Amino acid sequence: MTLQELTEQWRKKAPPAFNRPDAYTSAICASTEIHEALDAANRRRKMVNMRSRADSEKDRLERELGQSAFMICSIATELGQELTEYDVVLHE
Questions:
Q1: What DSSP state is assigned to residue 16?
Q2: C-alpha distances in Å from residue 17, one per residue of 24, 42, 55
Q3: Looking at the domain assignment, is residue 4 inside a domain?
Q4: DSSP 32
């Protein structure tokens, strides 16, 4: 359906007070402003969601990095203990 057809359909269904060109133009302008505001709100919502997801991903990566660092420290500690024990056995 074209914009002209939609316009005609709206004019046929509109109450008499709105069936004037100036009222119709005002309604179209208001509708356009509402759609633009909704689009802007959706863009902001998507940006917030992306930031939120990025923050969640960053937190997850930091947790994994912390776990990896702990594991590396544990392995290094065990290796140091084994080397110390090996060194003690060698010097006996």
A1: G
A2: 10, 33, 52
A3: no
A4: H
Domain count across the chain? 1
62 or 5, higher pLDDT: 62
CB 10 within 8 A of CB 24: yes
- Please give the pLDDT value at position 76: 84
- How far from the centroid of its chain's Cα atoms is residue 91's Cα? 62
The answer to the question of residue 1 being in a domain is no
- In this prediction, residue 84 carries a pLDDT of 75
Residue type, 49: N
Segment 53-91, tens digit of pLDDT: 888 888 888 989 888 888 888 888 888 777 777 666 666
Residue 2 included in any domain: no
The domain of 28 spans 9-91
Structure tokens at 32: 């356009």
Domain membership flag for residue 15: yes
- Tell me the pTM: 0.43
Q: Which residue has the tokens 């004019």?
A: 11
